[in-house]
Amino acid sequence: MKTDDLIRAVVADNASVKAPISRTVWLALGAGLVLAAAHFYSLLGVRSDFAFAITHDPRFMFKFVFTLGIAIPAALLVLRLARPDGAAGWTKWLLMIPPLLLAAAVALEMRAVPADHWAVSAFGSMPVACMKYIPILSLAPFVAILFALRQGAPSNPMAAGAAAGLLSGAIGAGLYATFCVDDSPMFLAIWYVAGITIVSALGALVGSRLLKW
Questions:
Q1: 0.70 cut: is pTM over it?
Q2: Dist CA 51 CA 187 (whole Å)
Q3: For residue 160, what are the contacts with CB-CB under 8 A and spacing of at least 6?
Q4: Dist CA 161 CA 60 (whole Å)
Q5: pLDDT in tens, 38-60
């Protein structure tokens, strides 16, 4: 084979190699975030007192501490489980932090709020909307991340799908939190957690079938 022919063959081989799965996942996540944000603004938009709530209500800010606290380790978990040798490893311990913080926030609110107001805090004003919009806003990143995982080789399709659902659910919950006026940690512990759990369960179900290889 001539040198020029060899160079052309090497270039062709390199061009056919798939991109690293980590880059594929990050690109899919970015695309899913953009689409989810656009969907959010077309449906809801941020609450009218958003700027005031950021600076004056720690409970409002805690909603983002909680959702980001889930989303960041869930993203790392998706990256690990996308590979055939992937395992949850130390990332599973990071996922323990948000529930512990939420439990502490609920305990503090229960100490500060009279017992006869607990039900009002827990049910809030829009529990049905919360359960509806978190899965809806999770849809774009969910589809994008599953597509990325299809380009990998997860050895545990159910776990990979559940991680994709957990990440997507946290994204949807974080977006919805900018609209939601129910800032009580009790409300968060029931309705936000339920919405994220629904998307995670859906991810496990879909992943167990779609990500098999």
A1: yes
A2: 21
A3: 78, 81, 82, 86, 149, 154, 207, 211
A4: 30
A5: 999 999 999 999 999 999 999 99
